[in-house]
Automatic annotation (TrEMBL), chain A:
The keyword Cell membrane is assigned to this record: yes
Organism: Tenggerimyces flavus
Leader peptide range in chain numbering: none
CDD domains documented for this protein: TM_PBP2
Main subcellular location of this protein, as a coarse class: membrane
Entry keyword set: Cell membrane, Membrane, Transmembrane, Transmembrane helix, Transport
Occurrences of domain ABC transmembrane type-1 (ranges): 83-285
Membrane topology: Multi-pass membrane protein
Pfam families tied to this protein: BPD_transp_1
UniProt family annotation: Belongs to the binding-protein-dependent transport system permease family.
Keyword Cell membrane (UniProt): yes
Transmembrane residue ranges: 20-44, 87-106, 118-138, 150-170, 191-215, 235-255, 267-287
Protein's name in the database: Carbohydrate ABC transporter permease
Entries under PROSITE patterns matching the protein: ABC_TM1
UniProtKB/TrEMBL annotation, chain B:
Assigned protein family: Belongs to the binding-protein-dependent transport system permease family.
Entries under InterPro entries matching the protein: MetI-like, MetI-like_sf, UgpAE/MalFG_permease
Protein name: ABC transporter permease
Compartment(s): Cell membrane
Record's keyword annotation contains Disulfide bond: no
Cited Pfam families: BPD_transp_1
Location of region: Disordered: 1-23
UniProt entry keywords in alphabetical sequence: Cell membrane, Membrane, Transmembrane, Transmembrane helix, Transport
Organism lineage string: Bacteria, Bacillati, Actinomycetota, Actinomycetes, Propionibacteriales
């Protein structure tokens, strides 16, 4: 086989190929720079002097290095509260989401579960058709969840995509025979799930948990519609208020320092972007591979 | 997403004892032996009923005049009045137009770019460069919409934004990108592509890696260069995947990301940035006109569903590939 492969390789590469490859590399370098540039620009600005940022001297490297933007960001009570809230929503929300996802995906993956296809259709249909914003809002309202932490956790608890991933994994990784054998030995379904299936499914559970965690970390819309109490606001909603609506209410500042305060408020934006995105981007390289696998399972029909 | 039928009654008897037969008897038997599985699924199913199906039934509000005291079911029926009000509103065509053009532009532009990125990456041999490009292009997908929008605003800011500073370097006057409605669609679509191109490419990369290497070797033997192999081996190879992605993309045309349009919106660019979803939010939750907003939302959902079914049928007829093939 190797000789055959070598033969194939030896066949002259058409001359156009070299030019073509140069073109391919150029194209990828363009992609790389276009995506990287704004990221570097933001990070560089966040470490620069407010005055340098306002006068437009920062391009790709910090000018007059300073941490004042970060000091302002991390000493802002709204930001701290938002951070803590988001950590809470992410941890508790993910825990609940993962539990419910396993609870629905596992039975639907078993052949012994009559009605699994009916259940699956019931779930898939929600991907095609929804009641809409207001009808959903009214349900949350009637349940008395408005302006409570539950509103950010419960109404979005289960994702259909995650259920598909989990079910596909359970079906392919846990053979039905294993369950049958366990049952013959007197092991109940729940016990089997707890002591055999879940330990075996750890990698998949990790992926599903991460997708939920990142959704929770990045979400702001539910908070926007369901919450009025600023103490409950997640980080992203605080960010929206500060970054997009420009409603930054920093501590008391001397009136004579208005210009500097404005510049600092501008710098704060860059630092806030970095501070809020770092946790997600920091774990991303470690989980990217699993994520990719997750996308693929999710993309496979079935 | 195929829905498999349970084995038929009277099917070959292999495995008959282990696989419960369908119908009530099978269900009863399964319930007796596996009641714990049914117990497990109760709470999640309640979730779907409460947060997905009850809202669907709440959509009857579209045909009523919502009265807080009487509640959804006690409110008086008004037939198609809410829909008529919406269709006759001068804003109707603007909304439909904006929503449709924005989504159509997104699908049309992001679809080929993801494929091109994947094809280019596929040509490069496994190595540091390839891994770097993949990691970097994939990363923005993990950044929140709020942050992507604020980055866009900062980068495009009229005075300080780096884009305008760059234009100024060439002697071009500063442009207020977000204040000018004619730029809105481009900003929306290209920031979207910036964020999702790497993520979308992953799916195509997987499809490319599944192509039989023998096909490439055969094409090489015939003297086909890289470009020809891309056109005649790679592209046909990822066709089924591309079709599913396209169908889903078009099917979601009216369900365009509300969050981003809303965040990028400002009073100056409203003529292009007001889409059905942002309108529903404003009439429904800010102005508390629940019935009208529900009617608009329902109109949107129905159009979406019809579009998905239609595009799926077309894709199936043309290429033999679709969702639930």
């Amino acid at each position: 086989m190797t000789t055959y492969a070598e033969q194939v390789r030896k066949i002259r590469e058409p001359r156009g190929d070299k030019i073509f490859m140069v073109f391919v590399y150029l194209l990828l370098i363009v992609f790389l720079s276009v995506i990287l540039f704004p990221l570097i620009y933001i990070v560089a600005s966040s470490f620069s002097d407010p005055e340098a940022v306002s006068s437009g001297r920062v391009i790709l490297w910090p000018v007059d290095f300073t941490l004042r933007g970060y000091e302002a960001a991390l000493s802002n009570p709204q930001v701290i509260q938002g951070y803590l809230n988001t950590v809470f929503y992410t941890v508790v929300g993910t825990l609940i989401s993962v539990t419910l996802t396993i609870a629905i995906a596992y039975p639907m993956s078993r052949k012994t579960f009559v009605g699994r296809n009916v259940a699956m259709s019931v779930i898939l249909f929600t991907m095609l058709f929804t009641g809409g914003l207001v009808p959903t809002y009214l349900v949350v309202q009637q349940l008395g969840m408005l302006d409570t932490r539950w509103a950010l956790i419960i109404p979005q608890a289960i994702g259909v995509w995650q259920v598909i991933i989990a079910r596909t994994y359970f079906r392919s990784a846990i053979p039905d025979e294993l369950g049958d054998a366990a049952q013959l030995d007197g092991c109940s379904d729940l016990r089997f799930l707890w002591s055999v299936v879940i330990p075996l499914a750890k990698p998949m559970i990790a992926v599903v948990a991460l997708t939920y965690a990142i959704l929770q970390w990045n979400s702001y819309f539910d908070a926007l519609i369901y919450l009025k109490n600023p103490d409950l606001f997640p980080l992203q909603l605080v960010l929206r208020n500060v970054l997009i609506l420009n409603t930054f209410s920093g501590g008391a500042v001397d009136a004579s320092l208005v210009l500097e305060r404005q510049q600092l408020a501008e710098l704060l934006k860059y630092s806030l972007i970095v501070v809020s995105s770092v946790p997600v981007l920091a774990i991303y390289p470690f989980v990217a591979r699993y994520f990719t696998k997750g996308i693929l399972i999710g993309a496979v029909k079935g | 997403m195929t829905l498999q039928r349970p084995p038929q009654v009277g099917a070959p008897s292999r495995g008959r004892r282990r696989q419960p037969r369908p119908g009530l008897r099978g269900l009863k038997k399964s319930l007796r032996h596996h009641w714990q599985l049914y117990l497990l699924i109760v709470v999640p199913l309640v979730y779907f009923v409460v947060f997905k199906y009850i809202p669907m039934s709440n959509a009857v509000l579209a045909f009523k005049n919502y009265n807080v005291v009487a509640g959804i079911w006690g409110s008086e029926w008004v037939g198609w009045k809410n829909f008529e009000m919406f269709f006759q509103n001068p804003v109707f065509w603007t909304l439909v137009n904006n929503t449709f053009l924005l989504s159509f532009y997104t699908v049309l532009a992001s679809f080929p770019i993801a494929i091109i990125l994947a094809l280019a990456l596929n040509e490069v041999r496994q190595g540091l460069f390839k891994r770097t490009v993949q990691m970097v292009t994939y990363a923005p997908y993990f950044i929140s919409t709020v942050v992507v929008v604020s980055m866009t605003i900062l980068v495009l800011a009229p005075r300080l934004g780096i884009v305008n500073r760059g234009l100024g370097f060439f002697g071009i006057d500063a442009i207020d990108f977000l204040g000018d409605p004619s730029y809105f669609r481009h900003i929306y679509v290209w920031s979207e592509i910036w964020q999702t191109a790497g993520y979308s490419a992953v799916i195509y990369l997987a499809a490319l890696s599944a192509i039989d290497p023998a096909l490439h070797e055969a094409a090489k033997m015939d003297g086909a260069g890289r470009l020809r192999r891309i056109l005649h081996v790679d592209l046909p190879g990822i066709m089924p995947t591309a079709m599913v992605i396209l169908v889903l993309g078009v099917g979601n045309i009216m369900a365009i990301g509300f969050e981003k349009a809303f965040l990028l919106q400002n009073p100056l660019n409203l003529s292009q940035s007001e889409i059905i979803a942002t309108y529903v939010y404003k009439t429904g939750l800010l102005n508390a006109d629940f019935s009208l907003a529900t009617a608009v939302g329902l109109f949107n959902s129905v159009i979406n569903l019809l579009l998905l079914l239609f595009v799926n049928a077309v894709a199936k007829r043309l290429t033999g590939n679709g969702l639930w093939s």
